[in-house]
């Protein structure tokens, strides 16, 4: 199974069948487990085997299938699934950090990630934010005592691509762990750990579910880190994924590569069509040669991804564009089968200060697009209708 290609792993890895030989992944919707004798219970609590269970806050067969499948796809030894992407973000940091530690993070982060990092400051962790694309800034920020660096490999919403290998080299030289939020890049063809990440996290809510149904998250890394540090802490903190949600994620993974490739191909078509169109001030797509991080994207991503951003200049123009869309749904999710358009400045990033918005490039005219799997012709026609509405 280890030598299979990603598409095969997405369908088959991690499956374990009960005595009934069910075709589909079994949904073990159970809080706990029973033991035939008191002695058996004692033995289970003394040493829980790799496919034995005590309580679903600790582990569950359906959740385990999801963990093993995504670990196989990512190419890591193990994974620990949690209730949401944010449970993964704080769940990867809590077990590793103590008062007095130092963390360096890229400043272009998902809003809730910035809030979580701020909470760690209350517990005596020092946090330094840097421009993630500026390698000298990482070099200047890390120091002995830097426990971890944290960044999104492709940032939200401006799609900055951070050079995982280069940042990992700087971090490792200082003895820091490298934690990558790889949600935008997706696990399809991801090489974050091959490039030096020690721990990779995903909001499974996005491309892995792919149908906007459930929340979920996952932390991936070596068995030592996952079972030695992450699990012993997180199984007591309670942000466990529901077995039902883990089951939805397993079924979502079956079509993940097909969806990501279809969406990325259409996103690339949109970017190419709009690059140089004078109705659009700026097209941000890592797959475009004009993107400032195109060379890094080519090294570390398979294709340009499913997300792009357009700068239409003003809020009025952005709203006119958004309100004319018919195939794109206005929402704040991403990675869905449905195409989704978002106005970050007034929704996902509304609480970011004006100064920070300016630094991060989140202007009033910025529109973020998550490209779905509808017919490319219909998606492109929808974009054209949006632009036509600009007058
Ligand atoms: C959505 C997202 C998260 C948070 O995930 P939830 O499942 O909503 O908790 C974290 N990081 C990135 C990059 C995201 O896009």
Automatic annotation (TrEMBL):
Enzyme category, top tier: transferase
Cofactor: pyridoxal 5'-phosphate
Keyword Metal-binding part of the UniProt annotation: no
Metabolic or biological pathway: Amino-acid biosynthesis; L-methionine biosynthesis via de novo pathway; L-homocysteine from O-succinyl-L-homoserine: step 1/1
Keywords associated with the record: Amino-acid biosynthesis, Methionine biosynthesis, Pyridoxal phosphate, Transferase
One MF annotation (Gene Ontology) recorded for this entry: carbon-sulfur lyase activity
GO cellular-component term (any): cytoplasm
Domain of life where this protein originates: Bacteria
GO biological process, one term: 'de novo' L-methionine biosynthetic process
EC number: 2.5.1.-
NCBIfam families, per the entry: O_suc_HS_sulf
Protein task: Catalyzes the formation of L-homocysteine from O-succinyl-L-homoserine (OSHS) and hydrogen sulfide.
PANTHER family with a match to the protein in the record: CYSTATHIONINE GAMMA-LYASE (PTHR11808:SF80), TRANS-SULFURATION ENZYME FAMILY MEMBER (PTHR11808)
Family: Belongs to the trans-sulfuration enzymes family. MetZ subfamily.
Identification of the protein by name: O-succinylhomoserine sulfhydrylase
Organism field: Phaeovulum vinaykumarii
């Amino acid at each position: 199974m280890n030598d299979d290609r990603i598409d095969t792993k997405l369908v088959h890895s991690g499956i374990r069948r009960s005595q009934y030989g069910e075709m589909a992944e079994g949904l073990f919707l159970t809080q706990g487990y029973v033991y035939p004798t008191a002695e058996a219970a004692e033995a289970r609590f003394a040493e829980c085997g790799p496919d034995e269970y005590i309580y679903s806050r600790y582990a569950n067969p359906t959740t385990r299938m999801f963990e093993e499948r995504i670990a196989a796809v990512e190419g890591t030894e193990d994974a620990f699934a949690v209730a949401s992407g944010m449970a993964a973000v704080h769940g990867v940091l809590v077990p590793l950090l103590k008062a007095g530690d130092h963390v360096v993070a890229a400043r272009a982060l998902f809003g809730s990630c910035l809030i979580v990092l701020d909470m760690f400051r209350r517990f005596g962790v020092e946090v330094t934010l840097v421009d993630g694309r500026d390698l000298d800034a990482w070099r200047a920020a890390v120091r002995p005592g830097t426990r971890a660096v944290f960044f999104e490999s492709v940032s939200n919403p401006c799609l900055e691509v951070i050079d995982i290998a280069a940042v990992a080299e700087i971090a490792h030289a200082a003895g820091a762990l490298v934690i990558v939020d790889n949600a935008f890049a997706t696990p399809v063809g991801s090489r974050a750990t091959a490039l030096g990440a020690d721990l990779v996290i995903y909001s499974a809510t996005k491309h892995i579910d792919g149908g906007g149904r459930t929340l979920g998250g996952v932390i991936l890394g070596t068995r030592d880190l996952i079972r030695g540090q992450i699990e012993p802490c997180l199984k007591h903190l309670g942000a466990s994924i529901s077995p039902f949600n883990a089951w939805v994620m397993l079924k979502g993974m079956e079509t993940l590569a097909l969806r990501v490739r279809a969406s990325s191909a259409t996103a690339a078509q949109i970017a190419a069509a709009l690059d140089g169109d004078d109705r659009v001030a700026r097209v941000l797509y890592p797959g475009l040669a004009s993107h400032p991080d195109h060379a890094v994207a080519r090294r570390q991503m398979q294709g340009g991804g499913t997300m792009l951003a357009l700068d239409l200049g003003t809020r009025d123009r952005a709203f006119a564009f958004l309100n004319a869309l018919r195939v794109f749904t206005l929402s704040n999710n991403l990675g869905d089968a449905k195409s989704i358009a978002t106005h970050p400045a007034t929704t996902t990033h509304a609480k970011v200060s004006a100064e920070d918005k300016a630094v991060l490039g989140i202007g009033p005219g910025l529109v973020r697009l998550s490209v779905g799997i509808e017919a490319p012709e219909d998606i492109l026609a929808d974009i054209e209708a949006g632009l036509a509405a600009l007058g």
